Amino acid sequence: MTMKREITVTVNGQQHQSEVEPRMLLVHYLRETLDLTGTHIGCDTSQCGACTVLLDGQSVKACTVLAVQAEISAAALAIRTLYARSSLPLSR
Asked: What is the pTM of this model?
């Protein structure tokens, strides 16, 4: 049995506090726990970039980052907000 860990993460300027398993990926935390489905799961191999989010201003593939690692950062910005702020054409 895995012990859950309490984390606090800021997403899109809103602070969220949750208990997660230490091995939960950030992409699953965003989609399943926070119901932020703008972050997609594409290839399950970290090749496609569909799960890309900004984490402390750096783009990362959320399928390669643990949710507990995101707690260390100051803010996570979901891709939906990134798309809305972008002047570049991003695929939908």
From this structure: 0.78
